[in-house]
Every structure is written in C-alpha cells, then in structure tokens.
Amino acid sequence: MYIIEIFAIAVALSMDALAVSVTTGVTLKQPNARQLFRMPAAFGIFQALMPITGWFLGKSVLDLIAQWDHWVACGLLVLVGAKLLHETLSGEGDDAKPVDPTRGWTIVVLAIATSIDALAVGFSFAILSKPILFPAVVIGLTCAAISLAGMLAGSCIGRIEAVRKWSGVAGSCALFAIGILILHDHGVF
User: Fold this and answer.
1) Contact 115, 13 (CB under 8 A)
2) Which residues of 77-92 are buried (b: 16+ CB within 10 A; e: fewer)?
3) Plot region of 187 (φ>0 → left; ψ -120 to 50 → alpha; else → beta)
4) How do residues 42-92 score in pLDDT, each as one tens digit?
5) Is the separation of the CB atoms in 146 and 37 below 8 Å?
6) Per-residue burial over 23-39, b = 16 or more CB atoms within 10 Å of its CB, e = otherwise
7) In whole angstroms, what is the distance from residue 26 CA to residue 170 CA?
8) How far apart are CA 83 and CA 172, in angstroms?
9) Rounded to an integer, what is the distance from CA 98 to the centroid of its chain?
10) Are the beta carbons of 132 and 55 closer than 8 angstroms?
C-alpha cells in the first residue's frame, strides 16, 4: 500500500476528531499548552491503537463489534454533549474557567468515540495481509496533527464575542451532530 493511500485513510479517520477538536477549541477559547498537547496526543494514540486492535481481532469478533460500534460511538458523543450542554445552560461553565474536555474521563470517552471506526481499518489490513504498524503510526500522527490544527482554529473562532456566549451550546450540538452522522454513515437511517 502506498503512503498516499495510507495518508488518505488517516485523514478520513481523523474527521470526527477534527470536529471535536474544533469544538473543544471554541469551548476553551484560549487553550493552554497542556490542553493543546492532551487532546491531540489522546486522539492520536487511540487512533493508532484501534487499527492495531482491529488487526489482531478475528473476523468473528469484529463482526460482533461492527454491529454495535456506531451505537457506542454515538452514545458516547451524545453523553459528553449532554454533559457540556447541561453545564452551559446551568451556568456551571460561567466561571472564569470553562469546562475542560481535555481532562479525565471526558478525553478518554472522546478519544474512544472518535477512533472506533479505525477498528475496521485494522481488520481490513489483516484481511489484505498488510502490515499494520507503519499505517497505525501514520494514522496516529496524522490524527494528532489534525486535532491540534482543529483546536487552534476553534480557539480563534471562540475568541469572537458573539460565539463566546453560545460556544457550549454550539459544542454540544456539534457533538450530537457527529453522533447522528456516525449513525447515518452506518445506514441506521
């Protein structure tokens, strides 16, 4: 498999992470260096590990996972989106410090939700008898770079006064929309 094909797969797998990263940048407004490291690192690591996991899983196990992966990803995104919406509307995020989705279980849930599709990629590499380590590294690094760019772009958008007021609601809606798009992409509706 050529590097261009692997890179194209990596970019495609990174689109959910990009949307969540932009949303996070908008929510945080001015992410610090730790936040700018944590989210891209978590997304990149999970995006690299999922194809490896898929590669090692057998067809029978992957078929079971494939029946539910889109529901799990959607559910996780809706859960995080609902939490963000609740905190925004209840005023919990009105302090000087906005909700930080780059910490704790939130970042783990987001990283898993945005990387579940990579299991199937790893499985397809196994079926094609292709090695997985190099593609997994490319996928992880690409996702980390795209996530960092998304956070930076989102932080620029988040500094606009009109956006600032509604960033939590917009971020929640974006997470809900990503979850719905995942279901749509899997033919649920």
Assistant:
1) yes
2) bbebbebbbebbeeee
3) left
4) 999 999 999 999 898 865 566 677 778 788 888 888 888 888 788 778 765
5) no
6) bbbbbbbebeeebbebb
7) 9
8) 8
9) 20
10) yes
The reported pTM is 0.80
- In this structure, what token pair is assigned to residue 48? 């690299």
User: Does 60 or 3 have the greater pLDDT score?
Assistant: 3
Q: Which two tokens stand for residue 132?
A: 């997985």
- Residue by residue, DSSP assigns 168-185 as HHHHHHHHHHHHHHHHHH
Q: Which two tokens stand for residue 96?
A: 């000087």
Residue type, 70: H
Nearest to 119 by CA among 169, 69, 60: 69
Cα separation, 34 vs 37, whole angstroms: 5
Buried b (16+ CB within 10 A) or exposed e, 123-153: bebbeeeeebeebbbbbbbbbbebbbbbbee
Residue carrying the six token digits 């992409």? 185
Rounded mean pLDDT of 153-165? 79
Gyration radius of the chain's alpha carbons: 17
Cα–Cα distance measured from residue 144 to residue 91, given in angstroms and rounded to the nearest whole number:
31
Q: How many CA atoms lie within 13 A of 14 on its CB side?
A: 31
Distance, CA of 31 to CA of 167 (rounded, Å): 14
